[in-house]
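User: Reviewer 2 asked us to show a designed sequence for the structure in our supplementary figure. I'm pasting the structure tokens here. Could you produce the per-position amino acids so we can include them in the response letter?
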């Protein structure tokens, strides 16, 4: 198994490349897309209301 196949197996991605430069360029493009997505959408913090009382335990 070559390093590209190992990366694809571990990451779950299926990046096809004929050279290391092409492989790295595709990884960098994915990172850029991810950064752009996070910048555009941001991380939404969950909304919790605190009434000052003790936590309510769920019996499930």
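Assistant: Here is a per-position design you can include in the supplement:
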């Amino acid at each position: 198994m070559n390093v590209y196949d190992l990366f694809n197996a571990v990451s779950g991605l299926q990046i096809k490349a004929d050279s290391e430069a092409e492989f790295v360029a595709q990884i960098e493009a994915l990172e850029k897309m991810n950064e752009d997505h996070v910048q555009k959408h941001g991380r939404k913090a969950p909304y919790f209301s605190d009434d000052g009382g003790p936590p309510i335990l769920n019996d499930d």
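For the response letter, you might also mention the following. The mean pLDDT is 83. Residues 3-41 form one domain.
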